Amino acid sequence: MSMKKHLHLFLFTIVFFSMAVVNEVGGSLQYPVVVSTWPFLEAVRAAWKAVEGGLSAVDAVVEGCSACEKLRCDGTVGPGGSPDENGETTIDAMVMDGETMEVGAVAAMRYVPEGIKAAKLVLEYTKHTMLVGDQASAFAISMGLPGPINLSSVESIEKWTKWKENYCQPNFRKNVIPRDNCGPYHPNGPSTRRCLMVNDFMPNEFGSVNVGLHSHDTISMAVIDQLGRIAVGTSTNGATFKIPGRVGDGPIAGSSAYADAEVGACGATGDGDIMMRFLPCYQAVESMRLGMEPKLAAKDAISRIARKYPNFIGALFAVNKSGNHAGACHGWTFQYSVRNPGMNDVEVFTVHPQ
């Protein structure tokens, strides 16, 4: 055999061996991975099917969150839930590509039920990060999504009607008059009295005592694809009886979710009005960048909020680029769902308040 043929054979052997090593390492890192807030099993299965079939992390996140929107997960994702003060349902959603750090988001979007797909359109076809309100709706429809569609449902209107009959209590107003019936509201100056808030202690419906699977507000999902690329996505119809125009943490990168392919990802759920003040998912990912394991990074991010707001209700999961994951919560018991190659189906992990 000639020297040239020997060289070609040698190079082929090196390349083949290198590929084998990469595949072996990839297997040990448990790629692909799908992680989601709450036991949204069908959403995780949809994302897993997509990523296992070779789709990118971004596309798999969209598939997973879209499944949750169609199923109207717990009434808090997609159309037909969480009426605002006017009885209308609106959508917040976000997609983040951890490779490019690009973000696409929509907020307070009316008339378009597919929030996560609208967010992806913003990411793919604009140089912006977020579109809001009716303009977001017009953009999504112009790019081919179905609409305009009434996002209310029989259930959401019934919930809103009962709330009106209860003099619009509880609500998100403070330091206003009137206090005991529906508006219009006017400033009343600083006051120690205030309207009941969603997180006040009303154990049968809104309080931190009996928060359950039908009173949280967001699907937040992270996917690591077969090439190790990482993406996150969120979708929500927001807080029930919110003031019209309110934007929660769902479309805010760093608050409801964050991804950096060099480090890992995070997804959060809970009291978005408080959480967005702390950017807990950005904090968790940055903590992992500094060497913290996911468990400690998640706990640290939640603890920073709880120190300032002891009655805060919220939770998050953190997953590093190796696929190791953990969760932390405060004020309620949290569950998150995972699928990786070592599992036969989605597994649900339960996290108790710290």
3D architecture notes:
It is a single chain. By secondary structure, the protein is an alpha+beta fold. The relative contact order is 0.16. The chain has an 8-stranded mixed β-sheet. A 4-stranded antiparallel β-sheet has the order 9-10-11-12, with helices on one face. It contains 9 helices and 14 strands. It has helices spanning 3-28, 41-52, 57-71, 115-125, 133-142, 154-165, 272-275, 280-289, 294-308, and strands at 33-37, 91-97, 103-109, 130-132, 176-177, 186-187, 219-224, 230-236, 257-260, 264-270, 314-320, 325-330, 334-339, 347-351.
Summarize it.
Helix 4 (115-125) crosses helix 5.
Layout: helices, strands, pairs:
Elements: H1 3-28, E1 33-37, H2 41-52, H3 57-71, E2 91-97, E3 103-109, H4 115-125, E4 130-132, H5 133-142, H6 154-165, E5 176-177, E6 186-187, E7 219-224, E8 230-236, E9 257-260, E10 264-270, H7 272-275, H8 280-289, H9 294-308, E11 314-320, E12 325-330, E13 334-339, E14 347-351
Helix pairs in contact: 2-3, 3-4, 4-5, 8-9
